[in-house]
TrEMBL record:
This is Multifunctional fusion protein. ATP binds at G8, P9, S10, G11, S12, G13, K14, S15, S16. It comes from Xylanimonas cellulosilytica (strain DSM 15894 / JCM 12276 / CECT 5975 / KCTC 9989 / LMG 20990 / NBRC 107835 / XIL07). Associates with the 50S ribosomal subunit. The chain holds residues 1 to 225 of 725 of the full protein. Belongs to the TRAFAC class TrmE-Era-EngA-EngB-Septin-like GTPase superfamily. EngA (Der) GTPase family. Belongs to the cytidylate kinase family. Type 1 subfamily.
Length: 225
């Protein structure tokens, strides 16, 4: 049984790397960013005004979410509807920080995430890789492995442009710059995820390709197993 916690900013590669690490080690995979995205979509659909902190917190507390933990296909559902694609839309991406900076929402999702991690350890799986912004510090500070996956701003913008636009020429990078940097700035008002906390190992992927980054994370895991 192992808990691997991986945090990092947008475009650090943490989702694809965490998924691949979970696959190779035969572990469950928890994408906590997808939970904040699902909470945002649910609040948009049911609470309306995202600046109404109490209404948003109440909506999220009751959200009928199903959380997929399969690294090959982490399907998220709201009210039995597959929202795995919708939660990646620009409408959600541009508003997610408003919901993620709501402290009552954070408390609700933290509890859900801790329950998911505990259930995975009690269940059939060999353990879980949980990734996000505050997993190493708040959600699972006692995780067996705690990693901060970072990358230079330039590398992060290039990767996000490739993800979103399928190419990383200057116009594509410019188009993602505002969204990525604004989200990181807004997120960092309520949590620190750019500097590693005590005991958290930093893996800088700026000059590593995908496979090298996966190997770097697996090497950190190997040290504790
Ligand atoms: O990782 P991803 O880009 O999907 O995360 C979306 C948003 O969810 C982040 O910008 C942040 O606002 C929020 N988030 C968070 N805490 C986490 C994971 C994500 O606040 N543990």
């Amino acid at each position: 049984m192992i808990v691997i916690a991986i945090d990092g900013p947008s475009g650090s590669g943490k989702s694809s790397v965490s998924k691949e690490v979970a696959r190779r080690l035969g572990l469950a995979y928890l994408d906590t960013g997808a939970m904040y995205r699902a909470a945002t979509l649910w609040a948009q659909q049911t609470a309306g005004d995202l600046t109404d902190q109490a209404a948003v917190a109440a909506a999220v507390e009751d959200m009928p979410i199903a959380i997929g933990l399969d690294p090959d296909e982490p399907v998220f559902e709201l009210d039995d509807v597959d929202v795995s694609e919708t939660i990646r839309s620009t409408e959600v991406s541009t508003e997610v920080s408003k919901v993620a900076t709501n402290l009552a929402v954070r408390a609700t999702l933290r509890k859900m995430q801790q329950d998911v991690i505990a259930a995975a350890l009690d269940g059939d799986s060999e353990g879980i890789v949980a990734e996000g912004r505050d997993i190493t510090t708040v959600v699972a500070p006692d995780a067996d492995v705690r990693i901060l996956l970072t990358a230079s701003e330039e590398a992060r913008l290039r990767r996000r442009a490739l993800d979103v636009h399928g190419e990383a020429h200057e116009a594509a990078v410019d188009a993602t710059r505002d969204q990525v940097l604004r989200r990181d700035r807004d997120d960092s008002t309520v949590m620190e995820f750019q500097v590693a906390a005590d005991g958290v190992v930093t893996v800088d992927s700026s000059d590593l390709d995908f496979e090298q980054t996966v190997q770097a994370v697996l090497a950190v895991v190997a040290q504790v197993t």
